[in-house]
Structures are given as C-alpha cells and as structure tokens.
Amino acid sequence: xxxxxLSYPHHVNDPLISGPFSLAIGFFDGVHLGHREVIExxxxxxxxxxxxxxxxxxxxxxxxxxxxRNEKVFYITPLDQKLKLLExxxxxxxxxxxxxxxxxxxxxxxxVETFIVQxxxxxxxxxxxxxxxxxxxxNMNVMKQLAKDDFYVSVIKKKSIGTEKISSTRIRxxxxxxxxxxxxxxxxxxxxxxxxVVHGDKRGRQIGFPTANIQAREGSYIPATGVYSVRMLVQDxxxxxxxxxxxxxxxxxxxxxxxxxxxxxxxxDKNIYGEEVYVDWYHHIRNEHKxxxxxxxxxxxxxxxxxxxxxxxxxxx
Length: 317
Description:
The protein is α/β, with parallel strands linked by helices. The chain has 10 helices and 14 strands.
C-alpha cells in the first residue's frame, strides 16, 4: 500500500498520486463496521470502473485544532495501526492529510478542488455525516453540488447495531466501562492495543504468576481498570492470557498513579523483553481492588486465570 502524506498547500506531482481513484474519505478511528462499509463500497466502485482504491484520513484528530484542546487525545487505532488495518483491506493508496489550522480554514470549494479534483479522484464515498471545510460547513449534499462533472459521489447511510449508530464515540464509551463484548461487536473484531514488553517490578514472578509488562503504543486508548481475558500476539504466535490494567493497590502506595498493563500468559515461559506485541481484549472479568494479603491475591488470580481460560476456549473467533 502506498502511503502519501499531504498538507495544505500540498504538491500534487508526487509519483504515487497517479489515479484515477475511487476514494473513501473519513477519519476512520477504529476502522469499525461503519467505516468498513464505506471502504467496501469504494472498493466495489473501483472494481466496477477499473479505478485504483484509495482512502483519505486525517492526522492528528481535528479536535486538537478545532477544540483547542490541551489534553492528550487517545485513539482507538493510532495512525500506524490504522494504516495496517487499511492495508489488510486491499487499499492501493492511503492519503494522510495533516490537519492544521490552515487546513481547517479551507472553504468546502477549496477542499474539493485541492484534495479531490487535483488528486485525480473520479468517485468519492463517505458516510452520511462526513463534513469538511471551514467549521464543517461542507456536508455530503454540498459535496454532490461541488462535484459537477468532475467526479461522482456515494453517500453511505447510517449503520446501526441495536438502536444506536455504530460510532467511534460509542466504542470509546464501551472501553471506558470495560464492555469489551460491545466494543468487539462494533469493531467487527477484538479491540487491540499494540505495545512493547518492558521491565516491570517482577512482582508477579515472585508470587507464581509471571507477567509481561506492556508499554502501550503512544496515543492508544486504554480500557477501564480491571482484569480481562486477552490474547497476545508475540513472536508470530497468539497466546491466551489474563490481563490486569490498573495501579496494583495491594502493593503500591495509593498515591502512586502510574497505570500498568500486565499480561500473564498461559503455558508460556520465554524471555520476551523488547518484543513488539499486540493484545486483543475480549472480556472484563472483574474490577481491580486491594487484597488483604498475598495469599488472597494469589487465590483470586488463580480464579481469574481459570475464568479467562474458560472464556477464551469458547470463543467463536
């Protein structure tokens, strides 16, 4: 997959920008089932009309510029993870547009001319609620009006599960409460965090449950604290495990607010420090709480382990 970084103003003589393209456009955080419907429609058009398949996404999140936010923004899929997912869908080219103050000031007309017409896009597909241009004044009806005879437009209707629209906001709400089943349902796959195995305090090893301490990739959205059934990809192998997200209150000073992600892998004893890993999250087992001693903690971890084993054994995917 070709990845083309664009900003405003950009240079359209990049050799990777050859087109003509069927373009799916959106922020696509999570690449959830709603996003996939948009992309699959663009793919269908590309196959029918002999076009190259492209996706346009934006970085960083528009709220950083438009909302003047000082706090950090966390993503369901950080950019590099998003790009891997898009590549797996057979995208020819992904345009990553730098979302800046200058870009945010573009009129809808200038956006269309610069980021669609000049990129040799002949068909645009987006969700019904996609907006563009200054203050989001461009919507999909405006897109159709501005297309004239230069390109065609497809608008994908709202996709729902239950009574609510599938959305990145809804997935974040599920992650915030630890509802991994709902997050998985909305994503169409397990929620996943990429990271690296780093050294921890090795307390788990001392009590008979060695853990891999995971440093999540910068910008990753971390689920609610608690204990989870997970699978971890390490050295090209998926291993079942149980994961604790939290502050380890049994051992730590209550004033120590450093969040940790620790995974105890079943039937696994390799040294994996420094390895890049992916953790898939499936089920919230319980909340984190402080135990009155090591024995109580060990007994509970053993129960958690068996709960996770039973849950993962019965998974359909």
